[in-house]
Design brief:
This protein is of the alpha+beta class. Among the domains are: 2-58; 198-259, no CATH class; 265-429, no CATH class. Strands 9-10-11-12-13-14 form a 6-stranded mixed sheet, with helices on both faces. It is globular and about 70 Å long. It has helices at residues 36-44, 46-58, 110-116, 120-132, 140-150, 159-165, 168-197, 207-210, 215-239, 242-258, 265-274, 293-296, 371-381, 386-408, and strands at residues 2-6, 11-15, 18-25, 28-34, 76-79, 83-88, 91-96, 104-108, 300-304, 313-321, 324-336, 339-348, 353-361, 421-424. It contains 14 helices and 14 strands. It is 43% helix and 22% strand.
């Protein structure tokens, strides 16, 4: 059960005995997990609330004069029906609330701001214009249909509403198109990330896979790949000589081929696929979409769930490339048009480390150097809490390991994964 207490400067959320404090400053959203003592202090007075907020944001208590202008902003806020307009330095931005996936933000002019505040109808028309670049027709449902036909993925956001404005046949057709687009984007993104982590792959992948990257990124990856190959060859010649290295690789390959050492659930799933006699290979699970092995590839293997689970697509990704061996499980949740929330577990076969991370991807999520910063900004933009991330993360792990246990009669489970070390992203701790 969740309880929310609203105060002048902040709000308190209580969930299962755990406290969090959140507030808004202009366009910024702040959300912190707190102790009961801090929550109690914030209730006493406006001054106490500001002191706690300052402490949470700055990791120290404020000095005497630091609260005078704290939490004030030059951003002017205008609240409408289903939208909010922000004014800062003569520029305007409209925030449109969504039924699913958090709000969307669009720049608008002063004239559009004034029109939006005239009436609910004017506000609706400005919101549509900001999102689509065109004014809505008199038939509102037809406008929605036209927009969704251009962007089928949006059919999945509010299925109940979509079934009312489309015929049964067209709705089912659009759902099929949306799922196909989701699966394609998800698979491409996983492959892109794996290639970025292992740039050598760019030299061997097909032209189709190379087209997933910009020319600038391809050039960068090729440079990195050649440097890694050069370093690897140099090390081999220096340590052992080419002949000894070949023998070692052959022996290691032979040993890996026949020796199945399942120290945990992830090694068990990985080895089941590459086992010489795969009696219970993971790609034979009923939940996994069937595809002949020769069509999956031999170095980068995508295994996708047939059905959406709790609003998210689930997939497994196996890597067996030179000395790179790993298995990943991931969930992909549509947050906004061209924006997906991805949660993943990646197990490295060499060091037995299970990395748990989170990030955003999609056509409307630009490639940046500082992904951590980008992730924090998007979590704030879409009002996604740490509790939600943790729930989705646990849900993903439990779903896959439970399905695997039932299929293979494995002794491992979510609560007993075996010998491994878990490294969680700070956003998931």
């Amino acid at each position: 059960m969740i309880e929310t207490e609203k105060y002048k400067n902040h709000s308190i959320m209580i969930r299962n005995g755990n406290y969090s404090i959140f507030w808004i400053r202009g366009k910024e959203f702040f959300d912190f997990e707190v102790s009961e003592e801090l929550a109690v202090k914030s209730r006493k007075s406006d001054k106490d609330a500001l002191e706690v907020m300052f402490y949470l944001e700055n990791k120290r208590w404020p000095k005497e004069d630091e609260l005078e202008n704290y939490n004030k902003t030059d951003v002017k806020t205008y609240v409408g029906d289903g939208f909010t307009i922000y004014e800062e330095n003569g520029e305007y931005e409209i925030r449109i609330e969504k039924d699913y996936g958090g709000p969307a933000f669009y720049p608008i002019t002063k004239e559009l701001k004034e029109k939006a505040l005239k009436s609910p109808r004017d506000g609706y028309e400005v919101a549509i214009y900001a999102e689509t670049g065109g004014w809505p027709p008199k038939d509102l449902e037809e406008n929605s249909r036209k927009f969704i036909r251009k962007h089928p993925k949006l059919i999945l956001i509010n299925p109940e509403k979509m079934q009312k404005i489309f015929s049964k046949e067209e709705y089912e057709h659009l759902v099929k198109l949306a799922k196909e687009e989701q699966e394609k984007e998800k698979a491409e993104e996983r492959e892109k990330e794996e290639i970025r982590e292992n740039p050598e792959l760019i030299l061997w992948v097909s032209e189709e896979k190379r087209n997933m990257f910009s020319e600038e990124e391809i050039n960068r990856l090729e440079v990195l790949a050649k440097e890694k190959i050069k370093v690897r060859k140099k090390k081999i010649r220096k340590r052992c000589g080419i002949f000894i290295a070949i023998i070692a690789i052959l022996i290691g390959s032979f040993y890996s081929y026949y020796k199945v050492n399942n120290r945990n659930a992830f090694e068990e799933m990985y080895n089941s696929y590459f086992n010489v006699l795969p009696l219970s290979a993971i790609d034979s699970m009923s939940q996994i979409e069937y595809k002949r092995r020769e069509k999956r590839g031999y170095e980068l293997i995508n295994l996708d769930y047939k059905e959406i689970v709790n609003g998210s697509s689930i997939g497994l990704f196996l890597v067996k490339f030179n000395d790179k061996k790993s298995i990943s499980i991931s969930s992909s949740t549509l947050i906004d048009e061209g924006v997906y929330l991805g949660i993943y577990y990646k197990y490295n076969m060499d060091n037995r480390k299970l990395e748990n991370g989170v990030g955003f991807y999609g056509e409307n999520v630009p490639t940046v150097e500082d992904k951590t910063k980008q992730t924090r900004e998007l979590l704030g933009k879409y009002n996604i809490s740490k509790e939600y991330l943790q729930e989705k993360s646990e849900e993903l792990l439990n779903t896959v390991l439970t399905d695997w246990k039932r299929f293979s009669n494995s002794s491992y489970s979510k609560d007993n994964m075996g010998k491994l070390t878990i490294e969680k992203n700070e956003l998931l701790r």
